[in-house]
Structures are given as C-alpha cells and as structure tokens.
Amino acid sequence: MAAETSDTSAKAESIVEVRHLSKTYDGRVRALEDINLSFPKGQLTTLLGPSGCGKTTMLKIIAGLLEPSSGEVFVNGKKITGPGPERAFVFQDFALMPWATVLRNAAFGLELRGMAKNERNEIARKYIAEVGLTGFENSYPRELSGGMRQRVGLARALAVNADVLLMDEPFSAVDEQTRRKFQEDMLALMEIEKKTFIFVTHSIEEAVYLSDQVVLLSRLPGKVSEIIKAPKAAGSPDEIRRDKVYLDTVEHIWQTLRKYLEE
Amino acid sequence: MHEWFNKDSIFWRLLSILIFFSAWEIAGRVPISPAFPTFIDTMEGLFRMISDGSFFEKYMITLKPLLVGVFITCFFGITFGVSMGLSDRIDWLGQPVFIVLQAAPVSALIPMITYVYGIGFTSKIIAVCILAMPVVVLNSINAVRNANTSLIEMSRSFQGTRMQEVFKVILPDASPMIFAGLRLGVAGGFVGIVLAELLITPTGIGDLISYHRSVANYAEMYATVLSIILLAAATVRFFERLEVRLFRPEKQGT
C-alpha cells in the first residue's frame, strides 16, 4: 500500500515549485539555504523540522508575505512577486478581527476583493457550514474557543477558492483533544475540497497523519534534509493511528530529527 | 433583589454619590474654611444662578470655543497622528513638536497667545487645542504603530490594498487607543478653556468663577466649578460610548 501511494504522488504534477531559495535575516542569520522543492497538486505536504529551521519563513515566502534573499517560487508555472489569489494563508494565531463577526471574518478575503455583500456572505456561510460552525455566524471571535477560531480562519481561506492553502502551525494554539478532532475533520475536508495544502508543523504525528509528503528540514541554515512520501493509510482515524506503517514512519522521522536536536 | 448588589448596578453608583455629597456637607458644616460652602448651600447657589439666567448665558460663551477646539483637535489630531503612525517621514517631521508640547507646561504659553491673538474667541480655541492636541496625536501614532501585525499580514495575504489595510484593519484595531487619547484630550480641552477664561480675560464660566470669588459668593463659585467638572466627566464618558458604537460592536452590552 505504501508503494502504491508513493507511485501516484510521483506522477502528480507539481503546483508550487521552489528553486534555489535562500533567506538571510539582517545579512547574518541564514534561515534558509538553497531550498529546492516541488509540491504536488492536490496533495498535502508538510514542512517539518526543529524550531528555528525556517519552516514558517519558507511558508511566508511562498505566500508572498516575505521576500526571499535569492531564489524563486513558481505557482502554476508563474514566478510569484507577492501574495496572489491562487494562494490563501491560515495563520498560527488565527488573525481574526475581534471587532468583526464570524461571518464577516470568514468573508473578509472576498470583501477585500470588492465582492458584493450578499454574494460574499452566501459563500462564507457555505464554508462556515463546511468547517462545522453553523449557528455561530453572528458570534464574535472572543466568544469562540481556540479550535473554533481556527475553523473560522480555515473558512476564510477556503472561501476565496484558492488552489493552494498555506497553513502555518494552524493547530499549535489549540488544545490536544480539539487538535485531534480538527485533524480528522481536515482529512475529511481534503476529500471534498481537492486543494493543495502546504502545512507547517512541529508535530511528527500530525505531519505523518495528515500528509502525502513530509519535508524534513535541518536547522540553521534550514536545508532540505529528507523528503518522505508518507503512506496515507486507509480506514478510520483510530485505525490509522495504530497502523504499522504509520508508526514506523513516525519513528523514522523522530530518529532523523533527534540528530539535529543533539547537535 | 440581589441584582441591586451587582457591581454595576445603579445602587452602588447612587451610594457612592450619596457618600461623596454627605462628606462634602459635613466638611462644609465643620467648617474647614469659611470659604468652603456646604453641599446644600452650593446647590442653592446653583439654583440662584440658573434662575437669574447667568448660568446658561455664561456657559454658552464657554462652550462655543470649547466645541470648536475639541472638534479641531479630534479631526486634525487624529489625522496627524495616524499619518505619522503610517509614514516614517511624516513622523520624523512632526513627532518632536508634539512630544515637546506634551512635556511642556503649556498653560504658561496661554498669556503669550493673548499677545498674538488678543483676548477673543481665537485665543480660547488655541488654548483648548494646545492642551488637547499632543496627547491625541501621540496616542494615535502609538495606536497605529502597535496595530496587530498578524492582522496586517492577513490583509496582505488576501491582496488587500494599502487603503483597505488602513481603513478596514489598522484603524479599527487602533481605535481603542486612539479613543483613549481622545478622552484624555477632551479632558485637556476643558483644562484649556477654564485656564483661558481665568487667565486671558474673565468671560464665560471663568467670569462666573472669578466674579463670585471676588464678592465672596463661595456657594456660586463652587457650584460653577462642580458643574464644569461634571460636564467634563460626562463628555469623556460620551466618547467612551461613541467608540464602542462606532468601532467595537463586540463590546456592546458588556
């Protein structure tokens, strides 16, 4: 089964290409060095590594929020120069406007594009329902739990109908139980939405559980250390968490990362 | 019944007012000083001024320059402050002036204004503005500077223009601090108008205060002082409400 999955992913065309990407902060700190990566269309790729390996930096460069020091990023074959409609970002700290309702927050990406109010609210309602927040449209973020807030962030990113969703440690500010439920819902959502996800996390289990491909980064400077085609096991979430291949992959990644921590 | 003892209930507010006025009444009866009237005397003084018409007549004189000054401060203060917060170049030009103004004992400048602008309306407006403006400007600068970077990044990631970023994200996010500045500014404006009317030339309520002091009508004098304090407090409270109304719907009803 593992072999099958990696075969299909090898054939999949890539939607995001990163070439010779480097980022240096203040001319001294080398956050990323000569990164070459391709992200297959319709799949979930995780950037995983010890803290300070530049994984969030890379994600923000792909988002167009940060300028690379050198190198290029191509999305759908076009070189990016800033944020674009084909990419949507989900923030670690949710980035919800406290003064706006769930509905307005979820529709905000469309509001910025100048879409008429009725139209954008209708679309936002659909995605609010998809992330399981029906009934909370008129609540304010402070009335929601952390997990629910991040669902609003996800609805906002889905509403703009981008091809690529960039998620920066989206569950790190959410408690463990909510996080598991959220991960399961994410898998279900990926089935419906057929989008490309690029996911940053520091949780090995989360990476293997959700991803088709895990990119391991080393620390200072951040370099690609290994690309692992994660076998996505079929079956219920609980079966996956007990799956032999799943557990072996988690163990393998841990052994690799451990080296960086001991350095 | 227990609603009455809820910390926000009107009961506690009335009680604290009652305690304050009783303490005043007792202090007046002791008496602390022959020039310190009791609360009841002060209220009688207030009614004498209201019934002879001098109270409202003088207040109209005071309120006009105060309103104009506060309006100018709100409009230009926020505009300056926000532009300085958004642009380093404008900030470099403007901020030192306001920092100096805020630190300086500005009331010392008020007699100087009279040399330039005489003793009329303009001088009073300027007095209000120089006392109110610095804190409004400086708060607006800081409010904009400290706007949530994550929200700004969010706006950019969804291709928001700079205009949208400023009006839909930065200003609403900065509004609590801008309004905190406005409240302090308005309070400063009241100081400015009273100082101007006492120092420049006795007009308006400044006239009421200095006239009644000169003829030893301490009840009337204190009534005037009390009324201007209450008016200032009510205005500050009004700005608090206005902020919630305009920018912070999520705080409504709390």
Quick recap of the structure?
The complex is a heterodimer of chains A (263) and B (254). By secondary structure, chain A is an alpha/beta fold.
Give me some keywords for this one:
heterodimer; A: 263 residues; alpha/beta; 6-stranded mixed sheet; 4-stranded antiparallel sheet; 10 strands; B: 254 residues; mainly alpha; MetI-like fold; globular
General description of the model:
The complex is a heterodimer of chains A (263) and B (254). Chain A has helices spanning 2-11, 55-63, 102-106, 108-112, 117-130, 146-159, 176-193, 204-210, 237-242, 244-262, and strands at 14-25, 29-40, 44-48, 70-75, 78-79, 87-90, 164-168, 196-201, 213-217, 224-229. Chain A is of the alpha/beta class and 263 residues long. In chain A, helix 7 (176-193) links the parallel strand 7 and strand 8. The two termini of chain A are 35 Å apart. By secondary structure, chain B is an all-alpha fold. Chain B has one domain (37-251): MetI-like fold (Orthogonal Bundle). The relative contact order of chain B is 0.12.
Physical arrangement of strands within the biggest beta sheet of chain A:
6-7-8-3-9-10
Overall mean pLDDT of chain A:
84
Detail the poorly predicted runs of chain B. Answer: none
Radius of gyration of chain B, whole Å: 22 Å
Largest sheet of chain A: 6 strands, mixed
* The CATH class of chain B: Mainly Alpha
Number of strands of chain B: 0
Task: Summarize the helices and strands and which ones pair or pack.
The complex is a heterodimer of chains A (263) and B (254).
Chain A: H1 2-11, E1 14-25, E2 29-40, E3 44-48, H2 55-63, E4 70-75, E5 78-79, E6 87-90, H3 102-106, H4 108-112, H5 117-130, H6 146-159, E7 164-168, H7 176-193, E8 196-201, H8 204-210, E9 213-217, E10 224-229, H9 237-242, H10 244-262
Parallel strand pairs in A: 3-8, 3-9, 6-7, 7-8
Antiparallel strand pairs in A: 1-2, 1-4, 4-5, 9-10
Chain B: H1 10-29, H2 39-51, H3 54-86, H4 88-103, H5 110-117, H6 121-145, H7 149-157, H8 162-199, H9 204-214, H10 218-247
Helix pairs in contact in B: 2-10, 3-4, 3-6, 3-8, 3-9, 4-6, 5-6, 6-8, 7-8, 8-9, 8-10, 9-10
